Amino acid sequence: MGFFTDTSVCIGCKACEVACKEWNHVPEDGLNLLGMSYDNTGGLGASTWRHVAFIEQIKRPGDVPGPVDDSGASVLTESVLGEFSADGSRWLMASNVCKHCTESACLDVCPTGALMRTEFGTVVVQEDVCNGCGYCVPACPFGVIDRREDDGRAWKCTLCYDRIGDGLEPACAQACPTQSIQFGPVDELRERAQLRVDALHEAGETGARLYLEDPDDGIGGGGAFFLLLDEPEVYGLPPDPVDTTRDLPRMWKHAATAAGALLVGGLAAAVSGRRGS
Amino acid sequence: MSRPQDPGSTGPGSTGPASTGNGHEPGLAARVRERWGVHGRGQHERDRAEARSVDLQDGARHGGARPGGGRRGEHGGGRRGEGRGGEQFVVPRAQPDSYYGKPIIKEPVWQSRDVAGYLFFGGLAGASSVLAGFAQAAGNHRQAQVSKVAAVSAIGLSGVALVADLGRPERFLNMLRVFKPSSPMSVGSWLLSGFGGASAASAACAVTGRLPKVGAAATAGAALIGPAVCTYTAALICDTAVPAWHDAHREMPYLFAGSAASAAGGLGMLALPGHAGQAARFAALGAITEMSAKSRMLRRLGETGEPYQTGRAGSLLDAAELLTAAGAAGAVLAAAGDALGGGVLGRRSRVVTALSGAALVTASALTRFGLFEAGRTSARDPKYVVRPQRERLAAKARELAP
Amino acid sequence: MAEAHPVGFQWVMEAKRRGAKIIHVDPRFSRTSAVAHLHVPIRAGADIAFVGGLINYVLQNEKYFEEYVRAYTNASTIITEDFRDTEDLDGLFSGFNPEHRTYDAMTWRYQSGNVAPASGARGLDAARMRDVKEASRGEAHGSGGAAAEIAPDLDETLQDPRCVFQILKRHFARYTPEMVAEVAGVPREQFLEVARLITENSGRDRTTAFVYSLGWTQHTVGVQYIRTAAILQALLGNIGRPGGGIMALRGHASIQGSTDIPTLFDLLPGYLPMPFANGNDNLEGYVDAESVDKGFWANTRDYMVSLLKAWWGDAATAENDFCYDYLPRLTGSHSTYETVLQQIDGKCKGYFLYGQNPGVGSANGRMQRLGLANLDWLVVRDLVMIESATFWKNGPEIDTGEMRTEDIATEVFFMPAAAHTEKDGSFTNTQRMLQWHHTAVEPAGDARSDLWFTYHLGRRIREKLAAAAAERAASAETVIGEAEAVDMDRPILDLTWDYPTWGPQDEPDADAILAEINGSDADGKPLSSYTQLKSDGSTSCGCWIYCGVRADGVNQAARRKPGQEQNWVAPEWGWAWPANRRIIYNRASADLDGKPWSERKALVWWDEEKGKWTGHDVPDFIADRAPSYRPPQGAVGVEAISGIDPFIMQADGKAWLFTPAGLVDGPMPAHYEPQESPLANPFYRQQHNPVRQIISHPDNEYQPSGNEPGSDVFPYVATTYRLTEHHTAGGMSRFLPYLSELQPAFFCEVSPELAAERGLEHMGWATIISARSVIEARVMVTRRMKPLRAGGRVLQQVGLPWHWGPNGLTTGDSANELSHLSLDPNVHIQEVKALAVDIQPGRRPRGPAQRDLVREYQRRAGITEETGTEV
Ligand SMILES: Nc1nc2c(c(=O)[nH]1)N[C@H]1C(S)=C(S)[C@@H](COP(=O)(O)OP(=O)(O)OC[C@H]3O[C@@H](n4cnc5c(=O)[nH]c(N)nc54)[C@H](O)[C@@H]3O)O[C@H]1N2
Ligand SMILES: Nc1nc2c(c(=O)[nH]1)N[C@H]1C(S)=C(S)[C@@H](COP(=O)(O)OP(=O)(O)OC[C@H]3O[C@@H](n4cnc5c(=O)[nH]c(N)nc54)[C@H](O)[C@@H]3O)O[C@H]1N2
Ligand code: SF4
Ligand code: SF4
Ligand code: SF4
Ligand code: SF4
Ligand code: SF4
Ligand SMILES: [Mo]
C-alpha cells in the first residue's frame, strides 16, 4: 500500500500536516515565521512527517508574452485557459512525506533492525528498538527521517501503520479535502496517476510529470510517489535519487582490498626492516 | 515540547536565527545564511535587495529565500508556456535549483568530536595492532609492546566516542541484536567487539607477561581484524546520501587505511624515537598511500569534491596534508637512518623522528575531522545533491537520444 | 473559498475535474486563485462596478435568457412615475431625506391599478422609515421578499420607458468596460474575458454559479453587492436551477442557523420581524403590518401564533392575544455596535459574551474594549481565556496608559464552555441544510454546554421569581406596584421551560428542543410541514421554516445516507428548510409549460398525467398547481400565486431586478466608494452610500476620502481577511500548537513594488496607521499582491490577516485596531474589507507614544468630528 500525491489539486490547507500530528501525537515543531511563502514548517523532520511546500511563481507584466495594458497587467486576447491562472501565474503547493522506498537506504543501514519493512511494504521505525545511532539520517536520499533532540531516537512517517492495520485510511489522506493525497495499492495508484498526467498534458500543463512512480528508478520506485508541475528540486526533492546501498558491495570490495593492502604494508614495513638490520 | 516563539525570529528584519524546530538543526535562515556565507553574499542583504528591487524581472530571477519562492519560478512557468505554444523563457541557472536554498538531504546528526574521534581512534587502534602483530613476528618486541597498548587504549577511546554519540552505553548492545551486512555500522559493531577483545587480551598478556600463547593468538587475531577496523569506517561514511562521501567510496578506504597506518606508525615513532625503524617505514607507506588516494579522489570528484577544498574542512585538510608531508619526510629519514645505522642514532635525529611521529598522528586526526566537516558542507548545500543528479539524467537522456 | 472553506471547496475541485471553469475575483492571489483558471485582481470595494459592468454587457449585447427574464422576473413591471434614478440625481435615488439620511421607498413602488391596503414597508413616513432602517427591516427577508403590490401594471413588450427592464438598462449604461477598468482596476480585456466566459456558460443548457462571502458583504454597500449579483443571475436565468444560484459561504459552522433562529435583535425565528414599540400594538396590527397579500408570507398569522404557542404553551390563548404582549418591543436599533456605544455611555451595564471575542474580532477594537471596561459585570462563556475576558490586564489600552487595571470596575465572570464535539446539536449550513452532531466526549472539568447554561440559568431565575410571587401571595396586603411586578414576571413564569435532562450534569435534551422547534398539533403529534400551521392556537411551532425537521418524530437532520446510495440531489443527507428542498425556487428550473429548460439541466417538472409537480428535488411550488393556472381577480395569499410565479416567497412571485421595497438604500445597486477610500467616485458626484450607517463618536474618527484634503495621508487600500490556518479572532486556533505553528505571527502582505516604495523588508517589521490606531506586523513581500491601475493612478493594496491578539501561543496586534464603525444600513455589517491606511517600515511606538502618532496623523489629515460623516 502507498500514496499518490497529486500536487495539481493541492490547495495548501495543511490539513494533512495537522491530522498527522493529531493522530500520531507528534510534538509541535517550533513557532517560527520563515518567510517562505505560507510555509512555516520548513521541511520534513523528526517532528514533521507531512510537510506542505509553497512555491510562488507569479508573473508580472512582460513575463508573459502577448498584450499588456497600460497598467502593465498582462491581458488575455482569446481564451487560453489551461489548468491554472490564465496569465501563467502559479502558486505551487505540494504535500511531502516519507517515500517508503522499495529500496530504502534508511532501512538498509539501520544497525539495530529498528527500521523494518511491514506487511504492507511500508517502512517503519520501531521506537523501542532504535538506539539513536543516527545512521539512517544521512542515508536517506530525501532528507526525510531525522533524530529527535530530546529522546535521541529517529522518527518519521509510519504510513499510519496502526490505522491501515485496522483497515483505516492514513490520517493525512483522510483529512485531505481535495484528494490530493490518495491512498491505496501502489500499482492501482500508478494507473490513476498516469491518467491524471495525460489529462493535465491535454489541458496544456506540459510541466506535469510523475516522480518516483517508476519501479526502475534509483530507489526501486516510491511507495509514496507524486505528480509534480515543475522540476523536483523546485519542491526541494532530488531529481534522480539513488539508494546509497546499491554501491555498498563495491564499497565493501574496496574496503577489503584496502584492508589487505594495510596488512601487506605492515608486512613490508617489517620485512624491509629485517633486510635493513 | 511547546517552544515559545524564538525572540530571535522576531527581531527587526530578521529571518532567524529561528529554529525550524528540528531540535538539532540550526535555524533555517541561519543555515541559509551560512550557506550563502560560503558564496559570499548574506541572505539578509539578498532579501533587502529583493524587497528594494523595483525591476520586476529581478525578483524571480534569482530566487533565494525570498517570498517569491521557487527560485526557478520563471523556468517552471516557461516550460509550461512552451507547451502552451510559443512562450520561451528559460532563466539561466545562476544558482543551483532548490527550495529556498534549503538542504535536500539531512546533515549527519553526529557530533564531529564523537564521530571524527571515533574514526581516528578506530584507525589508530586497527593499524597499531597490525604494526604490533608484525613487530612481534619480526621479534621487534619493544615496538610490539607499545603498539599493543596503543591499540587497546585507542579502541577504548573510540568506544567512548561512539557511546557518547549514542547517549547511553546500553544502546550499543541494541546493535548486537542483529548482524546486517547491509549496514556498515552493524558490521562495525561486531568488528569492534571482536577487535576490542583481541587487542585487550593481547595487550594484557604483553604487559603482564602471562599466558604467552594466548597472547600470541590474540595479537595475531587483532592484527588480522585491525585492518578491517581501519577501513570499514570508510564504507560507513560512504554508505550515505552525502555526495562528498558517497561519491568518494572508491578512494576513501585507501585514504582511511593510509591515514590509519601513518597515525599508528607515527605513534610508534613518537614512543620509540630511538627504535623507530619499522614504525617509520609503516608510517611512510601509510602517508604516501593517504596522499595519493586523496589526490586521486579529488581529481575524480570534481565539483562534488569542492567541500574538501573550501571552508573549514578545506583548511583542516590542508593543514593535515602539510603535516603528513612533513611527517612522511621525517619518517623516510628515520627509516633510512635505521637502515644504515641499525638503531644507533644521534640525539638530534631522535627528536626529529619523535616530532615527525607527532605530526603524523595529528595529521591523521585533522584528516578525519576535515573529512567529516566536508561531509556536512556537502549535505548542507543542495547544489551538491542536485547538480550531479541532473548531469546523470542528462547523460541518460543523451544515451536514449539517437 | 479554498482559504476559508477548504472542505466545501472539494466540490469546486470536483466541478473542475468535470470541466467547470473557475474564476476568482479577489484583490489578492490566494490559495483559491492558485487552482482557479482565471484570477482577476480587483480593487477592494469596487465589485458593484465590476458586476454592474457585467450586467451592462449582458443587456447591451442581449445575452440575457429572454423567456426566463420575461416570465420569471419583474422586468416587465411598471414603476411609479415619481421614481428618479441615480442617472437623474447624480448618485441619489428619489425619496432621499438628507436630514434623516433616509430614503422614502414610496417612489420606488410598482405602479398598480389595484389599490390594495398598504402593507409592510409601504406608506411609512420618514421618521418611521428611519426606525425601519435602524431596526433594519431590511434584514427581515431572509426567507423572502418585502411587501409589494401583487398585481402591478406590466408591459410584456419591455419597451415602456418606465418598465423595470428599461430602467435597468439606463441605470447600468454607465458601467462600461472602460469604467470597470478605471474603477475596479480590472483591465478591459480581462473583464471581457470574464463576461464572455459567464455568458457562454449560461442559458437553457448551462448554468453559472456565484459564490461570495465577506469580500462582498463587509462594506457600507454590502447588501447591494449581493443585489448586483442577484440581478445578473436573474438576467442569465441562473436562479432556481441546478448549477446556478448565488451561494453565500457562511461563517461559524451554524451562522446560517443563527439567522434562521436568530441571535439578531430585530428578528424572531423564521424571519418574523420583531414587533415595534410604535405600531404593531397588538397581534392584529402586527399581522396586518407585516404580512403580505400574496404568497406564503400571507400566512404570517399562522407562523406567529404557532410561535407564541411554542413559547407560552397553555398560557397563550385567543383571549390574551396568545401572549403577544409578552414579546419585547423594538424602540430602535440594538445591533451589537449600538450596544457598544451604550456601554461607553454607561447605559448598558451588564453583558453576556457567548462565543464571541469582540476585543479582537469586532471593528474598532479600542471602542469595544472601552465599552467592556465600562460595564458593571461581564459574563464570558468561551473555550479558552480570550482577549475579551482579559482586556482589563493586558489590553492595548493598558500599554498606552489609557486604562489602568485598578480603575476598571467591570466584574468579569469566565465560564468554560463545552465545544461542539462535547454536545448534541445541529449545524445549519449555507445550503439551509441542518446536520445533527452527537456528543463525542463529555466536556472536561467545569465546562458546560451553552444549552446547559441557558436552561439552568432560566430554571433558577424562574424558581426565584416563583418563590417571590408565592411570598407576595402569602403576605396579606399587597403593596401598590407589586401587582405590576407580578405581571412583569409572567412572561418568564409562563414560558414552556420544562425540557427533559440527562447525564450526571443534567444536560437538557437537545432533541426535545428540536421537537419544540419542529412543532406539534393539538394532540402533541409532530407536524411535517408549515402548511399545517394554524392561527387558532391549535398548533405550536418554534420556527415555521424548520417545520418538518422532525417529521414523524424522527430527527431528519441526523440522516447520513451516503451519496452513492441515493440520487444526486441526496435528499436523505440531513434536512434542508423549507420542506427539505435543496434548491430553492426550483420551479424556475422548468419552462413556462413546466418542462425542463433542457435535459441536461432538468431538476423538477410538471407531470401532466398525475397533475402534480415532480423531479429529482422536492418541488418548491404548490404541488398540484398547473403551469397554466392564473389566479382569479382579487385572489389573495397562496391562491394568488400563478402557475408561472416560481418565486413563491416574493410578493409578486417574481425574481426582482428592481426592489420596490425591502431595501433601505435604493431599489438598484450603484457604485459608491467605501467610507474611507483614496479615490473619488468616478461614477457620480455622490461619494458614499448616502444612507450608510455612520457612528459619530470621538473614538471613531473617520478619514477624508477621494479629493478631500488630507486623504493622501492614507494613500493605500487595506483589506482584511482570513488564513486557512487560523479561525477568526483566534480563540479556536491561536491557543492550539498544531495550528499556531503553521502561521506563527501576524504579518501583512505587500507587493515588491510597494515594499520598494516604502522601504519595507521581507520578514522585517511594518507599522500600519489609520485614524483610529496604529499596529505593527511582520512583512511578507510577495508578488501575489499586484499593484492595480485605478482612478488614473497605480494603486497599492495592503493585505492584513486579522486573526491576532495578545493571548494564546502566537500573539500579535489585531487588524481591527485600525478599522472603523460605519455600517451597511440594511444589516449593520462593519466595513472591514476596504480601508485606507498608511504603512511605514519598522516597529510601532510603545506606550503613550502610540496615541501621539495616531493624533499626529489625524492632525496631518485635518481630521475633525465631522470628517467622513457627510451624506
Ligand atoms: N480557516 C478559516 N475558515 C473560516 C474562518 C476562519 O477564520 N478561518 N472564518 C469563518 C467565518 S466566520 C466566515 S464569515 C467565513 C468568511 O470567509 P471569506 O469571506 O472567504 O473570508 P475572508 O478571508 O474574510 O474574505 C474573503 C476574501 O475577500 C477578499 N476581499 C477583500 N475585499 C474584497 C473586495 O472588495 N472584493 C472582493 N471581490 N474580494 C475582497 C479577501 O482578499 C479575501 O481573500 O469563513 C469561515 N471559515
Ligand atoms: N477586520 C475584520 N474583522 C472581522 C472580520 C473580518 O473579515 N475582518 N470578520 C467578521 C466575522 S465574519 C465574524 S463571524 C467575526 C468573528 O468574530 P468573533 O465571533 O468575535 O470571534 P471568534 O473567534 O469567532 O469567537 C468565537 C469564540 O467562541 C468560542 N467558542 C467556540 N465554540 C463555542 C461554544 O460552543 N460555546 C461557546 N460559548 N463558545 C464557543 C471560541 O473559542 C471563540 O473564542 O469577526 C468579524 N470581524
Ligand atoms: S524516504 Fe528516506 S526515510 Fe523514507 S523510506 Fe526512503 S529512505 Fe527511508
Ligand atoms: S537511528 Fe534508529 S532507526 Fe536510525 S539507524 Fe539508528 S537505530 Fe536505526
Ligand atoms: S501516513 Fe500517517 S504518519 Fe504518515 S504522514 Fe500520513 S498521517 Fe502522518
Ligand atoms: S490536505 Fe490535501 S489539499 Fe490540504 S495541503 Fe494537504 S495535500 Fe494539500
Ligand atoms: S472548519 Fe468545519 S466547516 Fe469549516 S471548512 Fe473545515 S470542516 Fe468545513
Ligand atoms: Mo463570520
SSE layout:
The complex is a heterotrimer of chains A (277), B (402) and C (871).
Chain A: E1 2-6, H1 15-24, E2 50-57, E3 90-97, H2 105-109, E4 115-117, E5 123-125, H3 136-139, E6 146-147, E7 154-155, H4 161-164, H5 171-175, E8 181-184, H6 186-202, E9 209-211, E10 224-228, H7 248-276
Chain B: H1 28-39, H2 43-52, H3 56-61, H4 73-83, H5 112-137, H6 141-166, H7 170-174, H8 184-208, H9 212-238, H10 243-246, H11 252-271, H12 277-301, H13 306-309, H14 311-341, H15 347-380, H16 382-400
Helix pairs in contact in B: 5-6, 5-9, 5-11, 5-15, 6-8, 6-11, 8-9, 9-11, 11-12, 11-15, 12-14, 14-15
Chain C: H1 9-17, E1 23-25, H2 31-35, E2 38-40, H3 47-60, H4 66-72, H5 86-89, E3 96-97, E4 102-103, H6 126-134, H7 164-172, H8 177-184, H9 188-200, E5 210-212, H10 214-217, H11 222-235, E6 246-248, H12 257-260, E7 267-268, E8 272-273, H13 283-290, H14 300-312, H15 336-344, E9 350-354, H16 358-361, H17 365-372, E10 377-382, H18 387-394, H19 396-400, E11 411-416, E12 425-428, E13 433-437, H20 450-474, H21 482-493, E14 501-502, E15 507-508, H22 510-518, E16 575-576, E17 604-607, E18 612-615, E19 693-694, E20 716-721, H23 737-740, E21 747-750, H24 752-758, E22 765-769, E23 774-781, E24 788-790, E25 793-795, E26 797-801, E27 822-823, E28 835-841, H25 849-860
Parallel strand pairs in C: 1-2, 5-6, 9-10, 10-11, 20-26, 21-23
Antiparallel strand pairs in C: 3-4, 7-8, 12-13, 13-16, 14-15, 17-18, 19-27, 20-28, 22-23, 22-28, 24-25
Helix pairs in contact in C: 3-8, 3-9, 3-11, 8-9, 15-17, 20-21
Please tell me about this protein's structure:
The complex is a heterotrimer of chains A (277), B (402) and C (871). Chain A has 277 residues and is α+β, with helices and mostly antiparallel strands. Helices cover 27% and strands 16% of the residues of chain A. In chain A, the strands form four sheets. Chain A has a four-stranded mixed β-sheet with strand order 8-1-10-9. In chain A, strands 2-3 form a two-stranded antiparallel sheet. Chain B is built from 16 helices and no strands. The longest helix of chain B is centred in the C-terminal third of the chain and has 34 residues. Chain C is α/β, with parallel strands linked by helices and 871 residues long. Chain C is 26% helix and 12% strand. In chain C, strands 21-23-22-28-20-26 form a six-stranded mixed β-sheet. The longest helix of chain C has 25 residues. The radius of gyration of chain C is 27 Å and the shape is globular. About 2% of the residues of chain C have low confidence. Classes of the chains: A alpha+beta (277), B mainly alpha (402), C alpha/beta (871). The interface between A and B is large, with 113 and 137 residues.
